[in-house]
């Protein structure tokens, strides 16, 4: 295979999607909950992010297949768990990108007078553009996300620094926040570190994966941490926020000293671009994983990638068709966007849980194992907030993935000494 992803392009695939809409949505939430102590929560969550990024990058290096981390899950927990993890991620991506499309289209429509009346058309245009970029191949994907993430990072960093320089005084936290409030905030902020688990689905197309992936992770992680911490610190020191706690807290506030009234338009473009980066990365990863599974025979053969194709076309068409169906159901109010997000989150959490559990068998050192265990506990708590529909679909996908093991277990019970004696 002609490998095309180097340190710079794979970093572009990481930074934008991992920042995602979180850089727009999460800092204001943290400040509303913790005030000027929000930066403490962000430091804690970024420390957790270091462990999360390191673990999943290490696991990605252990595999040479675009099936990604799921291969390692199968090796450490059993082959059935490889299928289970793969199906969890595929199920999540059947629903999650629709929510991202709605978020991106919302920012775009808010910049256009009367744009909300045409949101469905904006969504379909974004979906079509996404398909076109993915069909152009991995190089185009890397370049698009690199440009989007670089511009975003540059604007946020410059805007934050300028904002802080304009303040009469800069405040630092003078006490530790209440544990209960801090815990609730950390639960929400955990989404800022989700995304590293799909990097392994690009490993076949990475030049010298062991060196490239680890170096790209360090570059991307440094950029993500710097942008999140600087943006949050600038926002919680914003003059507009300090005037009154009733002020609507928006990340656009940090850009006002530099860009004035254009801040909201610029932030809308940034948010839409980051959502788009997330869409490209996640869909690109899962379609490659589906093609690799088809090669092994665990998915129908028609999903295989042909040699002349730059990207797994049939897998992409299948997922896009499902996304169109979900979009139609939301548009006509048969289901809600919140319902879609809840289901996607359920499967994303379960997939991450399997990866973290498998990683306990991949790492050495008591401290690292303790930190991974803490991450597992946090994810397990998050899972309890899943909607009933999410639990039902999770059960269905789990049964379909593990049906052979279940049948074998039932057969062993049926032929066991105990049951023979009873009969």
What layout of secondary structure does this protein have?
Layout lengths: L6 H13 L2 H13 L3 H24 L7 H9 L1 H32 L8 H17 L2 H29 L12 H11 L19 H28 L2 H5 L12 H4 L3 H34 L16 H19 L5 H23 L6 H18 L4 H14 L1 H12 L2 H6 L1
Helix pairs in contact: 1-7, 1-9, 1-12, 2-3, 2-8, 2-9, 3-8, 3-9, 4-5, 4-14, 5-6, 5-12, 5-13, 5-14, 5-16, 6-12, 6-13, 7-9, 7-12, 12-13, 14-15, 14-16
Describe, in short, the structure shown:
This is Inner membrane protein YjeH. It is found in: Cell membrane. This protein is mainly alpha-helical and 423 residues long.
Structural summary, described in words:
This protein has 423 residues and is mainly alpha-helical. It has one domain (7-390): Amino acid/polyamine transporter I. The chain contains 18 helices and no strands. Helix 3 runs antiparallel to helix 9 and helix 7 packs antiparallel against helix 12. Residues 239-246 have low confidence and may be disordered.
CATH homologous superfamily placement: Amino acid/polyamine transporter I
Number of strands: 0
Number of helices: 18
The level-1 CATH class? Mainly Alpha
Strand-pairing-aware structural class: mainly alpha
Strand content: under 5%
N-to-C SSE string, H for helix and E for strand: HHHHHHHHHHHHHHHHHH
